[in-house]
Amino acid sequence: MMNISRSLALISLFILPLLSFSFSVDNPTDRRVLVLLDDLSLKSSHSIFFNNLKSRGFDLDFKLAEDSKLALQRYGQYLYDGLIIFAPSTERLGGSLDSKSIADFVDSGRDLILSADTSASDLIRGIATECGVDFDEDSSAMVIDHSSFSVSDVDGDHTLVAADDLVKSDVILGKTKIEAPVLFRGVAHSLNPNNNLVLKVLSASPSAYSANPSSKLSSPPQLTGSAISLVSVMQARNNARVVISGSLQLFSDRLFRSGVQKAGSPNKYEKSGNQQFVTELSKWVFHERGHLKAGSLVHHRVGETDEPAIYRIKDDLEFSVEIFEWSGKSWEPYVADDVQVQFYMMSPYVLKTLSTDKKGLFHTSFKVPDVYGVFQFKVEYEKLGYTTLSLSKQIPVRPYRHNEYERFIPTAYPYYGACFTTMAGFFVFSFVYLYHK
Amino acid sequence: MVKSTSKDAQDLFHSLRSAYSATPTNLKIIDLYVVFAVFTALIQVVYMALVGSFPFNSFLSGVLSCVGTAVLAVCLRIQVNKENKEFKDLAPERAFADFVLCNLVLHLVIINFLG
């Protein structure tokens, strides 16, 4: 008796951690975040941003970027789910970190917030280039805008830009519209046109350009107008998310609290849009929003419930798939009217938009085309800001068996009659021909 | 002019009938059989023109059974005709046996193709 209860306790000791682990497997939000700073004073000057992350349940680990004990991995396991690099001037990262290990970190599906600033180091530029973002090569250049600068810009060189050209995406920037302009002081970047995963979240106005504010402009600036991106995001094919900002001040308490009035505009705001912008963007980048999960593809013939091993041409079938969206705390049903399924063999033979029951189930029904071969059900869902869904399931389609063709068709009765009449005629003819006198 | 034309046609028809009445009875029976087969085929073609060609295999087998029957009957007629010197060595019984065999094969194929 003693033995049994002891072994039970032992078993539960082993099983309990497994159970609790299995609950967090389905949880895509990052929990452990490493913050690399080039100066520990950033911890207090950017405290609103960091405290907001902490209050949302993130476990922030502040380290100096040159700390020689830095490590992202231990024994082949990543120690962190996310990485914030607020160290624009660092030339070399401490410990085992370099731009390759950060690229590997993103390749493993983990998230990154990278902020450059004026005089960004080659290391930071290199990491940004890996993500499809090219900072202005002139290291002393800043974004200057003589028409949409903030009136609180006391220096008079118009480098404190009030930007309001935001990407129109509820999933990246939240449902609440950001009313006040976002204050930005920093370096311009452009997007690599060959990279179609990266996009501008905050663009400069058409009158902006990138140059050194303290020297006279001798040649036309290389980056001008709305080609300049101030903040960009990249979602990799493995759904890792990266935010790249040209300004570290964008995240600072000072700009969070400062009021804003765009030059030439009568609207004066008590608070800049920075806090809302940065909070919503961090929710997106750490997978608190816009993360989709799909169940398996379910299909069966109309009127049946089991999945067949093979379909016949012209069968009627029903198809369904469940898609859920992570809300930061739980999986909510995903509602959209643009999810499509393909019935695919070399090219899509059937392309149907799925209808949803608003409880996460997307379904449709269609007829198998009059072509046999090995088909695939394919759901390829790529929507701005959402994680990419790419699902497929193979299914063969066979032609009719010889006994599945229709027989005794009423239209064909005259032909049947004619055949048997000629046979009867043959008998009658033979009889008459042989026995006539 | 008109009168003479119709009279010519009548004369032609009469001479044809009198010439045909001299044909032996067994050849007349074969002719009747051929007319029956061609007529059945025509009915089916008209029917197909009306309702469309959907069970096309059935239509083909129906029409081809009639056409095949007519062809085989004409072959028999050539072989049993006494005036045809080409087949004078062939016994009419042998010709009829060939005809029966060919018909059996034809109808076997037709039934298979009927659907």
From TrEMBL, chain A:
This is Dolichyl-diphosphooligosaccharide--protein glycosyltransferase 48 kDa subunit. Pathway: Protein modification; protein glycosylation. GO terms for cellular component: oligosaccharyltransferase complex. It is a single-pass type I membrane protein. Component of the oligosaccharyltransferase (OST) complex. Subunit of the oligosaccharyl transferase (OST) complex that catalyzes the initial transfer of a defined glycan (Glc(3)Man(9)GlcNAc(2) in eukaryotes) from the lipid carrier dolichol-pyrophosphate to an asparagine residue within an Asn-X-Ser/Thr consensus motif in nascent polypeptide chains, the first step in protein N-glycosylation. N-glycosylation occurs cotranslationally and the complex associates with the Sec61 complex at the channel-forming translocon complex that mediates protein translocation across the endoplasmic reticulum (ER). It comes from Microthlaspi erraticum. The chain crosses the membrane at residues 413-435. Belongs to the DDOST 48 kDa subunit family. Residues 32-285 form the OST48 N-terminal domain. Its main location: endoplasmic reticulum. It comes from the Eukaryota. Residues 299-437 form the OST48 middle domain. GO terms for biological process: protein N-linked glycosylation via asparagine.
UniProtKB/TrEMBL annotation, chain B:
One of its GO terms (biological process) is protein N-linked glycosylation. GO terms for cellular component: oligosaccharyltransferase complex. The chain crosses the membrane at residues 30-50, 56-76, 96-114. Pfam families: DAD. Pathway: Protein modification; protein glycosylation. InterPro entries: DAD/Ost2. Keywords: Apoptosis, Endoplasmic reticulum, Membrane, Transmembrane, Transmembrane helix. It is a multi-pass membrane protein. It is found in: Endoplasmic reticulum membrane. Component of the oligosaccharyltransferase (OST) complex. Belongs to the DAD/OST2 family. PANTHER family: DOLICHYL-DIPHOSPHOOLIGOSACCHARIDE--PROTEIN GLYCOSYLTRANSFERASE SUBUNIT DAD1. Subunit of the oligosaccharyl transferase (OST) complex that catalyzes the initial transfer of a defined glycan (Glc(3)Man(9)GlcNAc(2) in eukaryotes) from the lipid carrier dolichol-pyrophosphate to an asparagine residue within an Asn-X-Ser/Thr consensus motif in nascent polypeptide chains, the first step in protein N-glycosylation. N-glycosylation occurs cotranslationally and the complex associates with the Sec61 complex at the channel-forming translocon complex that mediates protein translocation across the endoplasmic reticulum (ER). All subunits are required for a maximal enzyme activity. This is Dolichyl-diphosphooligosaccharide--protein glycosyltransferase subunit DAD1.
